[in-house]
Amino acid sequence: xxxxxxxxxxxxxxxxxxxxxxxxxxxxxxxxxxxxxxxxxxxxxxxxxxxxxxxxxxxxxxxxxxxxxxxxxxxxxxxxxxxxxxxxxxxxxxxxxxxxxxxxxxxxxxxxxxxxxxxxxxxxxxxxxxxxxxxxxxxxxxxxxxxxxxxxxxxxxxxxxxxxxxxxxxxxxxxxxxxxxxxxxxxxxxxxxxxxxxxxxxxxxxxxxxxxxxxxxxxxxxxxxxxxxxxxxxxxxxxxxxxxxxxxxxxxxxxxxxxxxxxxxxxxxxxxxxxxxxxxxxxxxxxxxxxxxxxxxxxxxxxxxxxxxxxxxxxxxxxxxxxxxxxxxxxxxxxxxxxxxxxxxxxxxxxxxxxxxxxxxxxxxxxxxxxxxxxxxxxxxxxxxxxxxxxxxxxxxxxxxxxxx
Length: 405
Ligand SMILES: Nc1ncnc2c1ncn2[C@@H]1O[C@H](COP(=O)(O)OP(=O)(O)O)[C@@H](O)[C@H]1O
Ligand SMILES: [Mg+2]
Hints:
By secondary structure, the chain is of the alpha+beta class. The protein folds into 3 domains: 2-107, 3-Layer(aba) Sandwich (Rossmann fold); 128-188, Dna Ligase, domain 1, CATH 3.30.1490; 193-404, ATP-grasp fold, B domain (D-amino Acid Aminotransferase, Chain A, domain 1, 2-Layer Sandwich), CATH 3.30.470.20. It is built from 14 helices and 18 strands. It has helices at residues 14-23, 41-46, 59-70, 86-96, 103-107, 112-121, 135-145, 168-177, 218-221, 240-255, 289-297, 301-311, 343-350, 386-399; strands at residues 2-6, 27-32, 47-52, 77-79, 129-132, 149-153, 163-165, 184-188, 193-202, 205-215, 230-233, 261-269, 275-281, 323-328, 337-341, 354-359, 377-383, 401-404. The strands form 4 sheets. It has an 8-stranded antiparallel beta sheet with strand order 13-12-9-10-11-14-17-16, sandwiched between helices. Strands 3-2-1-4 form a 4-stranded parallel beta sheet, sandwiched between helices. α1 (14-23) links the parallel β1 (2-6) and β2 (27-32). Bound molecules: adenosine-5'-diphosphate and magnesium ion. The site of magnesium ion has 3 residues, from loops.
């Protein structure tokens, strides 16, 4: 089994996926723009060969280098788990005749308007929306959709350039701030709770499923710096509250022609019980969601994914034992971390429910919380009881305090 993997060294969680591929017996051909001698040791150990390219985002140049490099080697799969490379990966598959997701299918996982059209065509509920490229188009879309509405980039990420508008003055202000965005989606604002639906699929069928809840909703978490965002996987996927969301998720995979690999979908649960599609990517969720899945069931999803794409099965299925909550912390003040308060006491209160503590340390420079959800570090706690897991997560959110100067 020969597998080409785009960008094995960056972002850092890719190290685990290539490790997984090697562990399930694949020969891994890495392509990336990290220098060969800068590859993490785990990546070096997993790779059979590596092609260093000047820029992984320069699509035509990348294709022009990868195609001759692979000449004479039979390739079974071409994988990338990083959102910006999903389309070029699919173009390469099409070009080289490698099985897996085609460019046309991949577009449905990348273009937020097209994905909604394909999902709606299958009779599933999506927000009323329109693709807009000019102020005039945006104003016309607003007339049809009404207020409140959301305006966001067609290929956005991390809630960047995403605005909720409650009236015309909000909307006009958002349009001014979005001038650099080439294409946007205007959407009906869907009020409700927000969840993920994550899968590993084999030929479009989910062989692993996960649901997590965002607390609060990502757009709110990205609007107020004082919030410590929490994301908690849900142990019990059989509960009635999730039934419609899981059904929606499975329908979406079918509507979009999912093949094999990871998916990460977001959906909304309204107070009247209606579920609405949010968005989907054909890659895992970021910000340590894969680690949370592992802590939920004591599994190795990195290796499970590798086995699914190489061998068509993920191996042993393990029960979901915990709700695993991640809490992202943001320090008060600018510059470098000066002190952390409340961490030891929180750890003592939670005991072995604490799985991970990776907060920045005094002396380290703060990260840009608008650019990375991970912010100034995170903790993960888990508990079989939903309410207890959340209580411990909110305890960390409120009582661990980081300061910077
Ligand atoms: N139609 C909508 N109704 C309500 N909230 C929305 C809507 N679209 C986006 N949002 C909010 O904005 C966030 C980011 O939008 P999303 O489409 O998930 O893009 P991305 O995560 O790629 O930036 C969502 O998680 C949600 O909180
Ligand atoms: Mg999103």
